[in-house]
Design a protein that fits this description.
The protein is mainly beta and 139 residues long. Helices cover 12% and strands 52% of the residues. A hairpin with a 2-residue loop joins strand 7 and strand 8. This is Lipoprotein.
Length: 139
């Protein structure tokens, strides 16, 4: 069970070793942050796969962001309360209509009752949009 998480962590560490590109002042930049050791990665921008899952960089205007959030939940479901924790993965979509050039945004995610709770913030931490869970499971 921990092998997929280990592989994802190693891939993320490899990605972190490469520098992020410079932010384009004609675009909006969206950082991604999971809670603790949880993993939040960009998957699609306007239904097209992204090349680097660590961030989104978008033109001004409306966009649809899809992310994958992986987190651990306590084990259970058996007679033993000491069972291993499980990894859950949720695909989350956020739509926002008013990204502005040169602005920085942030999506933060955390787990709430075996689901992802993702929120898009502006630089002043104003809530701009909330994520919608597309699916969650042990995939």
């Amino acid at each position: 069970m921990r092998q997929p998480l280990l592989l994802a962590s190693l891939l993320l560490l490899g990605a972190c070793a490469s520098p992020l590109p410079a932010a384009d002042p004609n675009m909006a930049w969206i950082d991604l942050k999971g809670e603790g050791i949880d993993l939040l990665m960009a998957e699609r921008l306007d239904r097209e796969r992204v090349n680097d899952g660590r961030y989104f960089q978008v033109t001004p205007g409306a966009h649809e962001l899809e992310m994958r959030y992986r987190f651990e939940i306590a084990g259970g479901g058996s007679t033993s309360m000491m069972s291993e924790p499980q990894q859950l993965t949720c695909d989350v979509r956020i739509r926002y209509d008013d990204f502005k050039a040169g602005q920085r945004y942030r999506v933060e995610a955390r787990s709430v009752v075996m689901r992802a709770h993702a929120v898009l913030y502006d630089a002043d931490r104003n809530v701009l949009a909330r994520g919608k869970n597309l699916r969650c499971g042990t995939f």
